[in-house]
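Subgroup meeting minutes
Present: P.N., E.W., G.H.
Scribe: E.W.

1. P.N. recapped why we're keeping a running log of single-chain structure predictions: easier to compare across weeks, and new members can see raw inputs and outputs side by side.
2. G.H. added today's entry (172 aa).
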Amino acid sequence: MGRPATQILRKKLEANARKRGIELEINLQGVNGDTTTHAMKRLPQIVRKKADFVFIFFGANDASRYFSVTESEYAKNLSVMIEQLDENKVILISPPYHNDTLDINNRSNTLICRYRATMKKVGQLYDKNVIDLYGAMIASQNPNQYLQDDGLHFSARGYDLLSELMLERIMN
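Output recorded in log:
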């Protein structure tokens, strides 16, 4: 079994930042399989960290049929996170593309796009630009290159794309 996703992303962020001459202290609080509802329980400890930037990256699991996070609950949870984490530091990341040909029973791009739209609405409400990860992935001729063979989790290219998008936002 491979390294947890947060460790892989941290390594990619650090490596890509160093290529640009930037040193970052990265403290990822993501938990594999989390939804916004799960994250709400950890929110007080995340608020206490007082980070310079906070990336909120949820939606794929919220949109999953395994969890019962409605779009309105998702929007409410995102709003609470933004308000408690200091609106000026928050950067939203849309849910990613999903390979529907491999698993349409659990989640689908139709559902993911609804949660993506919800995140964009919350972003507009708080005057936040959303990193449209889904849009960046589908802009490729082969968006599946960003995913592992399960059609859901990121490949090395997927982590590269995500880390580059995050670094671009930090630098702007």
